[in-house]
Amino acid sequence: MIALSDQSPEAFGARRAVYRHPLKPDRLIKVVKPSARPAWRVRFSSRFGSYKSHGIELTEYLVLRSRMSNDPPIVAPFHGLVETDLGVGVEVERMVDREGRLAPTLHALVERGGPAPHLWPQVEAMIGLLIRHHVVVSDLKPLNLVLARWGGADRLVLIDGLGEKNLLSLRPFSRIANRLSLAKAGRRLRAWLQEGR
Ligand SMILES: Nc1ncnc2c1ncn2[C@@H]1O[C@H](COP(=O)(O)OP(=O)(O)O)[C@@H](O)[C@H]1O
Ligand SMILES: [Mg+2]
Known about the structure:
Bound molecules: adenosine-5'-diphosphate, magnesium ion
Strand order of the largest sheet: 1-2-3-5-4
Number of helices: 4
Mean pLDDT: 94
Strand content: 15-25%
Largest sheet: 5 strands, antiparallel
Shape: globular
Structural class: alpha+beta
Oligomer: single chain
Radius of gyration: 17 Å
Number of strands: 7
Protein backbone atom coordinates (compact mmCIF):
# COMPACT_ATOMS: atom_id res chain seq x y z
CA MET A 1 0.00 0.00 0.00
CA ILE A 2 1.23 3.50 -0.88
CA ALA A 3 1.40 6.03 1.98
CA LEU A 4 0.06 9.46 0.97
CA SER A 5 -1.28 10.79 4.26
CA ASP A 6 2.17 12.01 5.36
CA GLN A 7 2.40 14.49 2.45
CA SER A 8 0.34 17.49 1.33
CA PRO A 9 -1.66 17.30 -1.88
CA GLU A 10 -0.17 19.09 -4.87
CA ALA A 11 -3.64 20.18 -6.06
CA PHE A 12 -7.30 19.87 -5.21
CA GLY A 13 -10.46 19.53 -7.25
CA ALA A 14 -14.00 19.65 -5.95
CA ARG A 15 -14.05 15.88 -5.39
CA ARG A 16 -10.48 14.71 -5.29
CA ALA A 17 -7.12 15.51 -3.76
CA VAL A 18 -4.13 15.12 -6.08
CA TYR A 19 -0.82 13.84 -4.64
CA ARG A 20 2.60 13.45 -6.19
CA HIS A 21 3.39 9.74 -6.42
CA PRO A 22 5.97 9.11 -3.67
CA LEU A 23 7.91 6.55 -5.74
CA LYS A 24 7.37 7.86 -9.29
CA PRO A 25 7.85 11.64 -9.46
CA ASP A 26 6.39 11.88 -12.97
CA ARG A 27 3.04 10.49 -11.79
CA LEU A 28 0.16 11.71 -9.64
CA ILE A 29 -2.28 9.78 -7.49
CA LYS A 30 -5.85 11.08 -7.14
CA VAL A 31 -7.90 10.07 -4.13
CA VAL A 32 -11.48 10.93 -3.22
CA LYS A 33 -11.68 13.62 -0.53
CA PRO A 34 -13.51 12.48 2.60
CA SER A 35 -15.96 15.37 2.11
CA ALA A 36 -16.85 14.04 -1.36
CA ARG A 37 -17.88 10.58 -0.15
CA PRO A 38 -21.64 10.25 -0.60
CA ALA A 39 -23.91 10.20 2.43
CA TRP A 40 -25.76 6.91 3.02
CA ARG A 41 -28.97 8.40 1.57
CA VAL A 42 -27.45 8.85 -1.88
CA ARG A 43 -25.25 5.77 -1.96
CA PHE A 44 -27.87 3.86 -3.92
CA SER A 45 -27.17 6.15 -6.88
CA SER A 46 -24.11 4.10 -7.81
CA ARG A 47 -22.82 0.69 -6.81
CA PHE A 48 -19.33 2.23 -6.96
CA GLY A 49 -20.20 4.39 -3.90
CA SER A 50 -17.31 6.76 -3.14
CA TYR A 51 -15.45 5.45 -6.16
CA LYS A 52 -18.14 6.38 -8.68
CA SER A 53 -15.94 8.90 -10.45
CA HIS A 54 -12.97 6.49 -10.60
CA GLY A 55 -15.23 3.83 -12.16
CA ILE A 56 -16.76 6.14 -14.75
CA GLU A 57 -13.40 7.63 -15.69
CA LEU A 58 -11.70 4.25 -16.02
CA THR A 59 -14.46 2.89 -18.25
CA GLU A 60 -14.43 5.90 -20.59
CA TYR A 61 -10.63 5.84 -20.71
CA LEU A 62 -10.91 2.33 -22.13
CA VAL A 63 -13.47 3.58 -24.67
CA LEU A 64 -11.07 6.35 -25.67
CA ARG A 65 -8.02 4.07 -25.92
CA SER A 66 -9.90 1.52 -27.97
CA ARG A 67 -10.97 4.15 -30.51
CA MET A 68 -8.15 6.64 -30.67
CA SER A 69 -4.90 5.04 -31.67
CA ASN A 70 -3.37 7.16 -34.42
CA ASP A 71 -4.63 10.52 -33.17
CA PRO A 72 -2.64 13.03 -31.19
CA PRO A 73 -3.03 12.33 -27.45
CA ILE A 74 -5.54 14.58 -25.69
CA VAL A 75 -5.96 12.92 -22.29
CA ALA A 76 -3.38 12.50 -19.51
CA PRO A 77 -2.33 8.83 -19.60
CA PHE A 78 -3.98 6.70 -16.99
CA HIS A 79 -1.88 4.07 -15.26
CA GLY A 80 -4.50 2.22 -13.26
CA LEU A 81 -5.77 1.93 -9.74
CA VAL A 82 -3.52 1.89 -6.68
CA GLU A 83 -4.19 1.10 -3.04
CA THR A 84 -3.20 3.96 -0.75
CA ASP A 85 -3.68 4.75 2.92
CA LEU A 86 -6.33 7.26 1.75
CA GLY A 87 -8.33 4.68 -0.18
CA VAL A 88 -8.21 3.52 -3.79
CA GLY A 89 -6.46 6.09 -5.94
CA VAL A 90 -5.98 6.53 -9.68
CA GLU A 91 -2.43 6.85 -10.94
CA VAL A 92 -1.99 9.25 -13.86
CA GLU A 93 0.82 10.98 -15.69
CA ARG A 94 1.75 14.29 -14.09
CA MET A 95 1.32 16.97 -16.77
CA VAL A 96 3.97 19.68 -16.44
CA ASP A 97 4.87 23.07 -17.90
CA ARG A 98 8.25 23.93 -19.45
CA GLU A 99 9.80 24.34 -16.00
CA GLY A 100 8.53 20.98 -14.74
CA ARG A 101 5.88 22.52 -12.49
CA LEU A 102 2.35 21.20 -12.47
CA ALA A 103 0.82 22.32 -15.79
CA PRO A 104 -1.52 25.30 -15.37
CA THR A 105 -5.24 24.83 -15.96
CA LEU A 106 -6.93 27.00 -18.58
CA HIS A 107 -8.77 28.54 -15.67
CA ALA A 108 -5.51 29.59 -14.01
CA LEU A 109 -4.03 30.85 -17.30
CA VAL A 110 -6.99 33.11 -18.03
CA GLU A 111 -7.25 34.28 -14.45
CA ARG A 112 -3.59 35.29 -14.58
CA GLY A 113 -3.27 36.54 -18.15
CA GLY A 114 -6.77 37.50 -19.25
CA PRO A 115 -8.53 36.39 -22.44
CA ALA A 116 -6.75 33.67 -24.42
CA PRO A 117 -8.55 33.33 -27.78
CA HIS A 118 -5.35 31.91 -29.31
CA LEU A 119 -6.04 28.68 -27.39
CA TRP A 120 -9.40 28.11 -29.12
CA PRO A 121 -7.99 26.16 -32.12
CA GLN A 122 -6.55 23.56 -29.74
CA VAL A 123 -9.83 23.30 -27.84
CA GLU A 124 -11.70 23.00 -31.13
CA ALA A 125 -9.36 20.25 -32.35
CA MET A 126 -9.83 18.32 -29.11
CA ILE A 127 -13.61 18.60 -29.35
CA GLY A 128 -13.44 17.45 -32.97
CA LEU A 129 -11.62 14.26 -31.93
CA LEU A 130 -14.01 13.57 -29.05
CA ILE A 131 -16.97 13.93 -31.43
CA ARG A 132 -15.39 11.83 -34.18
CA HIS A 133 -14.62 8.94 -31.84
CA HIS A 134 -17.79 9.23 -29.76
CA VAL A 135 -15.96 9.72 -26.47
CA VAL A 136 -18.07 11.19 -23.66
CA VAL A 137 -16.76 14.01 -21.49
CA SER A 138 -19.16 15.22 -18.80
CA ASP A 139 -17.12 18.10 -17.51
CA LEU A 140 -15.36 19.89 -20.37
CA LYS A 141 -14.45 23.02 -18.43
CA PRO A 142 -11.40 25.24 -17.87
CA LEU A 143 -10.47 23.58 -14.56
CA ASN A 144 -10.20 20.20 -16.26
CA LEU A 145 -7.96 21.30 -19.13
CA VAL A 146 -4.27 22.05 -18.72
CA LEU A 147 -1.65 23.48 -21.05
CA ALA A 148 1.28 21.11 -20.79
CA ARG A 149 4.68 20.61 -22.35
CA TRP A 150 4.25 17.14 -23.74
CA GLY A 151 6.19 15.33 -26.45
CA GLY A 152 8.16 18.47 -27.23
CA ALA A 153 5.11 20.68 -27.81
CA ASP A 154 2.71 22.83 -25.79
CA ARG A 155 -0.46 20.78 -25.77
CA LEU A 156 -3.93 21.15 -24.42
CA VAL A 157 -4.62 18.09 -22.24
CA LEU A 158 -7.82 16.88 -20.61
CA ILE A 159 -7.01 15.78 -17.04
CA ASP A 160 -10.51 15.10 -15.68
CA GLY A 161 -14.13 14.86 -16.75
CA LEU A 162 -14.09 11.70 -18.91
CA GLY A 163 -17.25 9.62 -18.89
CA GLU A 164 -20.96 10.00 -18.27
CA LYS A 165 -22.08 10.79 -14.73
CA ASN A 166 -25.78 11.10 -15.44
CA LEU A 167 -27.54 7.73 -15.65
CA LEU A 168 -30.31 9.14 -17.82
CA SER A 169 -28.09 10.83 -20.39
CA LEU A 170 -28.22 9.76 -24.03
CA ARG A 171 -24.63 10.73 -24.77
CA PRO A 172 -23.05 7.26 -24.35
CA PHE A 173 -25.62 5.74 -26.74
CA SER A 174 -26.13 8.48 -29.28
CA ARG A 175 -23.42 10.08 -31.37
CA ILE A 176 -25.76 12.96 -32.13
CA ALA A 177 -26.51 13.64 -28.46
CA ASN A 178 -22.77 13.52 -27.71
CA ARG A 179 -21.97 15.87 -30.59
CA LEU A 180 -24.61 18.41 -29.53
CA SER A 181 -23.41 18.33 -25.94
CA LEU A 182 -19.73 18.75 -26.86
CA ALA A 183 -20.56 21.52 -29.34
CA LYS A 184 -22.42 23.35 -26.56
CA ALA A 185 -19.46 22.97 -24.18
CA GLY A 186 -17.25 24.25 -27.01
CA ARG A 187 -19.35 27.38 -27.55
CA ARG A 188 -19.16 28.10 -23.84
CA LEU A 189 -15.37 27.61 -23.79
CA ARG A 190 -14.91 29.76 -26.87
CA ALA A 191 -16.85 32.68 -25.37
CA TRP A 192 -15.01 32.26 -22.10
CA LEU A 193 -11.58 32.26 -23.82
CA GLN A 194 -12.54 35.38 -25.78
CA GLU A 195 -13.93 37.34 -22.87
CA GLY A 196 -11.67 36.01 -20.12
CA ARG A 197 -14.55 35.48 -17.72
N1 LIG B 1 -2.68 14.62 -14.79
C1 LIG B 1 -2.58 15.84 -14.24
N2 LIG B 1 -1.51 16.62 -14.50
C2 LIG B 1 -1.39 17.86 -13.97
N3 LIG B 1 -2.29 18.39 -13.11
C3 LIG B 1 -3.36 17.65 -12.79
C4 LIG B 1 -3.58 16.35 -13.34
N4 LIG B 1 -4.72 15.86 -12.83
C5 LIG B 1 -5.20 16.80 -12.01
N5 LIG B 1 -4.40 17.89 -11.97
C6 LIG B 1 -4.63 19.12 -11.17
O1 LIG B 1 -5.41 18.81 -10.05
C7 LIG B 1 -6.67 19.51 -10.07
C8 LIG B 1 -7.77 18.60 -9.55
O2 LIG B 1 -7.78 17.39 -10.28
P1 LIG B 1 -9.14 16.79 -10.87
O3 LIG B 1 -8.84 15.47 -11.45
O4 LIG B 1 -9.78 17.79 -11.77
O5 LIG B 1 -10.03 16.62 -9.53
P2 LIG B 1 -11.63 16.60 -9.37
O6 LIG B 1 -12.05 15.24 -9.85
O7 LIG B 1 -11.86 16.80 -7.92
O8 LIG B 1 -12.18 17.72 -10.22
C9 LIG B 1 -6.84 19.93 -11.53
O9 LIG B 1 -7.65 21.08 -11.66
C10 LIG B 1 -5.40 20.17 -11.96
O10 LIG B 1 -4.95 21.45 -11.52
MG1 LIG C 1 -11.75 18.39 -12.05
